[in-house]
Write a structure and sequence with these properties.
The complex is a heterodimer of chains A (53) and B (554). By secondary structure, chain A is an all-alpha fold. Chain A is 66% helix and 0% strand. Chain B has 554 residues and is mainly alpha-helical. Chain B has 20 helices and six strands. Chain B is globular. The mean pLDDT of chain B is 93. Classes of the chains: A mainly alpha (53), B mainly alpha (554).
Chain lengths: 53, 554
């Protein structure tokens, strides 16, 4: 029983850290005023536009 | 020779040895982290691990690899500890209790090496070699890899958050650095009298006809990596105060050298990776200044402390190993707490009150002076970003560091990094002093009792691993609390560092302008030292006041 508890504690701790990494990554990808890198500088083709629509 | 002259000479010898080694080792480390070629043995390792070592990983992928690898390490080590009695060379020792196994597994995977148990009376050879020592190699390599990823992130421009390959960093550090140095170093240690065998308990009769039991084991092979990668976990309970683990003054000085050499060399390597040696020099100078300050203050505290017994002995000798004396013990204590090593050659509980406070403060700085093998560099670079930001605010310019603009998102990540460890330490302290189970293991009360707990949570949160000896920490409460503090104290800052590395790798490098703060000059070193002491250190002043400072004044 104790082994199961510590296994769950360990898994939950690492899962929390992984979720945090994911959350930070999403925030860093949000376009913002100070975020020059978030501006999409790639040239869009008509095919891309079609997919977007 | 007077003790003061001896103390100065050994410090000068140490500094000279470091000064000669650091440029060469720094260059070698930079090559490890930037080389495009894989050695044949490394390719075999990649095939076994089934990884693509040429893939340039996004920071999140790098972080997930580090977390996943470390999780596997915790689970494997936990299993070895619990099943110890069924393993060969267990010397008849039982498996660890569940809470103790959790604590120790996390402790060694996080490079902390906090030990609630006595190695010679609880851990068999298989656990020591295949469990604990393996993690000593791997945990240091993970930290160094993250520091290298941060340096690469700073050096890159518009690379979409890609910071390198975790598996390549891990395998290269182990195969090109840790294994060769540890092998040669272990032989040197054996030549100087360190134990290396498979004996268990060895009963013998002394000259006085008394019976004594000596415990042998693979000590030298563990000792080198214990110091080199700032692990600190001793084969024996007395750690480096034990003559089998630290035979004489030469090995003692060599152990201090090993604790310091990689963290300092990583700063040099940083300068090479970002293609500006002066930047590495500034980080190195800052680390060195803080280390010198710690050594000076701790040596002064131990050699001049007032009190009748101290005056009669000439210095504070209680708890010190007589083979080394006060000055060497103070040098070791300051170095082991300012790196994230945590090995001890004297009992830190017996340090004078100001000496113990300085040891704690060294750790509270966040292990940046020079800190852990990898965490020291990335911790200091985070402080450098704070320094640049504060200076930018003062002159009204958008701050930038090495051509990277420090905007809102960057500074939020740095602020979270700065707050993470103090929050873990101080919340842990609050929980421990409010819980009856937290107070149950204390031998002292009053300010020293508080210092015992403060030292424990500080050591765990900063992944140091040393301890005041007056706290019985082998309980379910302490093993669980400290295990969680160690785990989040290691990986929470690591995730934030990698996120910032990815952020820097995404943005372009701005050319330096007339208003750019020079970050390679002595003024910046002074500012960085000030920021480390004020921004980080002062967070702990209330706790330090109630513990070692009150004890010093009483």
């Amino acid at each position: 029983m104790a082994d199961l508890i510590y296994l769950l504690i360990t898994l939950a701790s690492f899962a929390l850290l992984a979720l945090l990494a994911g959350a930070i990554d999403r925030r860093l990808h949000d376009p913002g005023e100070d975020d020059e890198s978030s501006v999409d500088t790639t040239t869009r083709t008509s095919a891309d536009e079609a997919v977007t629509r | 020779m007077s003790p003061v002259v001896a103390a100065i000479l050994q410090i000068l010898l140490l500094v000279a040895a470091l000064g000669v080694t650091i440029p060469f080792l720094g260059r070698y480390l930079a090559w490890i982290f930037t080389s495009r070629r894989h050695l044949a043995v490394e390719r075999v390792a990649y095939r076994v691990l089934r990884v693509d070592a040429d893939a340039d990983q996004h920071w999140k992928s790098y972080a997930m690899s580090a977390l996943g690898f470390s999780l596997a390490g915790v689970l494997l080590l936990y299993a070895i500890e619990r099943l110890q009695s069924h393993l060969p060379l267990s010397l008849g020792f039982a498996g660890f209790p569940a809470a103790g196994a959790f604590n120790t597994a996390v402790s060694f995977v996080t490079n902390t090496n906090w030990q609630w148990y006595s190695g010679e009376s609880a851990a068999g050879h298989t656990l020591q070699m295949a469990g604990l020592t393996v993690q000593m190699f791997l945990s240091g390599a993970v930290g160094m890899g993250v520091a290298a990823a941060f340096a690469r992130g700073m050096a890159r421009s518009r690379r979409g958050g890609r910071v390198g390959n975790f598996w390549a960093d891990l395998v290269r550090v182990v195969l090109r650095l840790a294994l060769p140095v540890s092998t040669v170093g272990a032989v040197v240690f054996v030549a100087f009298g360190m134990v290396q065998n498979f004996h268990g308990d060895w009963a013998m009769t002394t000259l006085g006809d008394a019976h004594q039991v000596l415990t042998g084991g693979p000590v030298a092979s563990q000792e080198l990596i214990k110091e080199l990668f700032n692990n600190g976990g001793g084969f024996y309970n007395a750690n480096s105060a034990h003559p089998f683990e630290n035979p004489d003054s030469f090995t003692n000085l060599m152990e201090v050298y090993l604790e310091l050499v990689i963290p300092f060399a990583m700063a040099w390597a940083f300068g090479l990776i970002v293609r500006d040696r002066r930047q590495g020099g500034a980080i190195l100078a800052t680390m060195g200044s803080l280390w010198a300050l710690g050594v000076g203050l701790l040596t002064w505290a131990e050699m001049s402390h007032v009190g009748q017994a101290v005056k009669l002995a000439g210095s504070a000798m209680e708890g010190k190993e007589t083979r080394f004396g006060t000055a060497a013990s103070a040098l070791f204590a300051a170095s082991t707490t300012s790196t994230s090593t945590g090995a001890v050659d004297a009992m830190h509980d017996s340090l004078t009150a100001p000496g113990g406070g300085i040891a704690m403060f060294d750790m509270m700085l966040g292990e940046v002076s020079p800190g852990g093998v990898g965490s020291g560099l990335y911790g200091m670079l985070m402080l450098a970003v704070v320094t640049v930001f504060l200076c930018g605010l003062m002159v009204g310019r958008t701050p930038e560091y090495l051509g990277k603009k420090i905007g809102q998102r960057e500074i939020v990540l740095v602020a979270l990094y700065i707050l993470a460890t103090p929050m873990l330490v101080l919340v842990g302290l609050a929980i421990a002093i409010r819980a009856p189970a937290g107070l149950a293991g204390l031998e002292a009360s009053g300010p020293h009792g508080l210092s015992e707990i403060l030292y424990a949570v500080t050591s765990a949160g900063n992944n140091n691993g040393s301890a005041f000896g007056g706290l019985t920490a082998g309980t379910t409460f302490w093993n669980t609390l400290l295990g969680l503090i160690m785990l989040f104290g290691r990986f929470l800052p690591m995730v934030l560092v990698l996120a910032l590395a990815g952020r820097f790798a995404t943005t372009r490098v701005l050319p330096a302008g007339a208003g750019t703060l020079p970050t390679h000059k002595p003024l910046f070193v002074i500012l960085l030292v000030g920021v480390a002491v004020v921004v980080v250190g002062l967070t702990y002043v209330p706790a330090l006041t109630l513990g070692p400072i009150v004890e010093s004044l009483s």
